[in-house]
């Protein structure tokens, strides 16, 4: 486990270079944070208990479904529902060379069967290796080799980040308290005129009874 206070939240580039590349190349790397699971055999709410670590998001290696060509929207079916791809895949570039090294696909879980499934708040970010059409000399060899091996191997691995999207209830509740105070009083008490604060007394700053300087009308 990670030390107290630390959270596992890698960037898109780190997921590709620090985890997916060594996994494909079968090189040693820290496996504490990323488990391995067949996503077609488990519902999303079962995955947190199966993860190596994580409180609000969970990471897994999984093998990509080869029934569909790359770039095609796919439905990953489970017993209860299915994962449906949404939006356009995001390109992931290697910062030093700005070369294409991976893609991120966003999927949403639906209960039931397509196309009449019920949308849920379970989200998946699927990361896969990808190489550009033209070879890049400055790109690390491991990344190039991993992309080539993964494309031709039966074990076509991806990294999946699973999380449950918030409904936004907190934002709605908090917004009700963001109304200016005079307006709230007018609505609740039926006043037609804005409430004004009484004038402040002219305190002597040197007096021991003087209030702190930070207590102005604007802070009431």
From TrEMBL:
UniProtKB keywords: DNA-binding, Nucleus, Transcription, Transcription regulation
Organism name: Aegilops tauschii subsp. strangulata
GO biological process: regulation of DNA-templated transcription
Pfam family, one: NAM
Chain ranges passing through the membrane: none
Keyword check for Lipoprotein: no
Record protein name field: NAC domain-containing protein
UniProt superkingdom: Eukaryota
Subcellular location field: Nucleus
GO CC, alphabetical: nucleus
Organism taxonomic ancestry: Eukaryota, Viridiplantae, Streptophyta, Embryophyta, Tracheophyta
Domain spans labelled NAC: 2-165
């Amino acid at each position: 486990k990670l030390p107290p206070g630390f959270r596992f939240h890698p960037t898109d580039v780190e997921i590709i270079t620090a985890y997916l590349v060594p996994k494909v190349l079968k090189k040693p790397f820290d496996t504490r944070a990323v488990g391995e699971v067949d996503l077609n055999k488990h519902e999303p709410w079962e995955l947190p208990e199966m993860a190596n670590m994580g409180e609000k998001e969970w990471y897994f290696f999984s093998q990509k479904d080869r029934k569909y060509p790359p770039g095609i929207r796919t439905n990953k079916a489970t017993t209860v529902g299915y994962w449906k791809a949404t939006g356009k895949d995001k390109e992931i570039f290697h910062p030093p060379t700005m070369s294409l090294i991976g893609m991120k696909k966003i999927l949403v879980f639906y209960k039931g069967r397509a196309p009449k499934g019920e949308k849920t708040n379970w989200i998946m970010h699927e990361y896969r290796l990808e190489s550009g059409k033209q070879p890049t000399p400055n790109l690390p060899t491991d990344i190039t080799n991993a992309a080539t091996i993964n494309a031709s191997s039966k074990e076509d691995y991806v990294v999946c980040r699973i999380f449950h999207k918030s409904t936004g209830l907190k934002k709605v509740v908090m917004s009700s308290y963001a109304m200016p105070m005079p307006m709230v009083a007018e609505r609740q008490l039926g006043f037609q005129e804005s409430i004004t604060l009484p004038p402040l007394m002219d305190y002597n700053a040197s007096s021991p009874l003087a209030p702190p300087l930070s207590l102005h009308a604007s802070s009431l």
